[in-house]
């Protein structure tokens, strides 16, 4: 048995050496987030288009973003050279860049990766003033609503509306406002958007070390965010399972005709309403900009999506960046939006007839992406987000003093004085 095992290992080594020899094109491994196969399609198209310069294979990461991060961090900390390309949730870009896990973007691609790209996606791909990843697709939340309810409430949805207006309208009509307030990342998304829309920011000095980090929770903007969460709870419009609502649960709440009112959620909502055969989708569902936290102050909706980074320890950095340039070009971003339903980060995509057909609200998505506020950019994002969620949970415990308490708790966690 021992001799057979050694022989097998030797044979495998020989085969591996032959397959990765200099005579053939390098095989690039792209670690991707799960989708419907659209990224794998792009990988094949770019491999074919390279005319022998490289071949891209895909390796699917876990569905959960934190598990994606953990798998990549574990490999990169061990200087794993097999990670050539990786699809990164925007909130992890800062951490990976600070840890030295991302290869430097060559000068020749700096302007190419940002040309025609929405502002929020460029910001999310930048760390300490330096582009460290390539925007691939972007995401933002819209306000979805029942037209009949808005009309009966006297709301002019062609103009900006506030959280106070939609909460009051829903309460008066005994309808719901779908939000995400479970103890998970989506709650951070909501809190951050509320604060940003009130003119604030959770982290004031991105890049600072833990002891010097300046937080903006204990501020008028943070208190206004807490008041909005309090109002959702007090008026009883968050539904019976507010504290456990994620994207899917809040969408289900919106789909239930007897209580359906308003919803903040991502653009996939439109296609999902069709898939779920919601009867009022085509004649009574409207969409508009994310609600204002403060009347007259333009809202800053959530930003999400994926950036593509090149692994610092790849043995094929030149080919890897050539591949990234292909994967995220304007045509492929448009194709990916059509195939996957995930919005393009490239502004030119939104004039494409295929996009306009699939997304009647395409123009609104593009405008919202330009307004969108990325979540806090810090190398300590994971701990900060978890501590923030814990501080604001459950939502019915939120008071005007919660932002101050959260700020103190987060700093204690980052300094190692308290554990999550």
Structure summary:
The protein has 420 residues and is of the alpha/beta class. The chain has helices at residues 2-19, 38-49, 65-77, 93-98, 107-114, 119-124, 147-152, 163-173, 185-197, 220-234, 247-255, 268-275, 281-284, 317-327, 330-340, 353-358, 362-371, 381-391, 402-414; strands spanning 27-32, 55-60, 85-88, 126-127, 130-131, 134-140, 142-146, 177-178, 262-265, 285-288, 303-310.
Would you write up a description of this structure?
The protein is 45% helix and 12% strand. The model is unreliable at 1-21 (pLDDT under 50). The protein has a five-stranded mixed beta sheet with strand order 2-1-3-11-6. A four-stranded mixed beta sheet has the order 8-9-7-10. The termini are far apart. It has helices at 2-19, 38-49, 65-77, 93-98, 107-114, 119-124, 147-152, 163-173, 185-197, 220-234, 247-255, 268-275, 281-284, 317-327, 330-340, 353-358, 362-371, 381-391, 402-414; strands at residues 27-32, 55-60, 85-88, 126-127, 130-131, 134-140, 142-146, 177-178, 262-265, 285-288, 303-310. By secondary structure, the protein is of the alpha/beta class.
């Amino acid at each position: 048995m021992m001799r057979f095992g050694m022989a097998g290992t030797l044979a495998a080594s020989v085969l591996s050496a032959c397959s990765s020899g200099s005579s053939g094109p390098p095989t690039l491994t792209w670690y991707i987030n799960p989708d419907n196969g659209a990224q794998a399609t792009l990988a094949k198209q770019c491999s074919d288009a390279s005319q022998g310069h490289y071949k891209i294979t895909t390796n699917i990461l876990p569905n959960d973003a934190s598990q994606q991060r953990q798998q990549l961090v574990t490999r990169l900390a061990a200087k794993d050279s097999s990670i050539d390309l990786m699809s990164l949730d925007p909130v992890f870009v800062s951490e990976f860049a600070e840890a030295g896990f991302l290869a430097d973007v060559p000068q020749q691609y700096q302007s190419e990766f940002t040309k025609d790209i929405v502002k929020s996606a460029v910001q999310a791909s930048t760390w300490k003033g330096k582009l460290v990843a390539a925007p691939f697709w972007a995401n933002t939340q819209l306000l979805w609503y029942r037209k009949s309810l808005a009309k009966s409430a006297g709301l002019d949805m062609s103009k900006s509306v506030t959280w106070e207006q939609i909460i009051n309208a829903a309460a008066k009509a005994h309808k719901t406002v779908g939000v995400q307030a479970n103890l998970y990342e989506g709650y951070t998304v909501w809190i951050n958007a509320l604060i940003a829309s009130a003119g604030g920011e959770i982290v004031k000095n991105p890049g600072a070390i833990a002891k010097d980090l300046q937080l903006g929770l204990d501020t008028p903007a943070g208190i206004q965010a807490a008041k909005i969460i309090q109002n959702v709870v007090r008026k009883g419009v968050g539904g019976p399972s507010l504290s456990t609502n994620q994207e899917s649960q809040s969408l289900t709440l919106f789909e239930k005709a007897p209580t359906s009112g308003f919803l903040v959620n991502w653009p996939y909502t439109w296609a999902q309403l069709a898939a779920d055969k919601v009867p009022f989708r085509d004649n009574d569902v409207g969409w508009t900009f994310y609600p204002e936290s403060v009347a007259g102050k333009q809202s800053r909706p959530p930003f999400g999506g994926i950036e593509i980074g090149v692994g610092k320890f790849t043995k094929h950095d030149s080919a890897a960046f050539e591949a990234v340039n292909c994967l995220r070009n304007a045509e492929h971003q448009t194709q990916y939006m059509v195939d996957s339903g995930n919005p393009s980060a490239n502004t030119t995509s939104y004039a494409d007839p295929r996009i306009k057909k699939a997304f009647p609200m395409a123009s609104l998505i593009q405008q919202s992406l330009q307004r969108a506020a990325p979540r806090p950019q810090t190398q300590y994002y994971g701990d900060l987000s978890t501590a923030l969620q814990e501080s604001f949970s459950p939502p019915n415990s939120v008071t005007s003093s919660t932002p101050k308490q959260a700020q103190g708790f987060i700093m204690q966690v980052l300094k190692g004085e308290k554990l999550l």
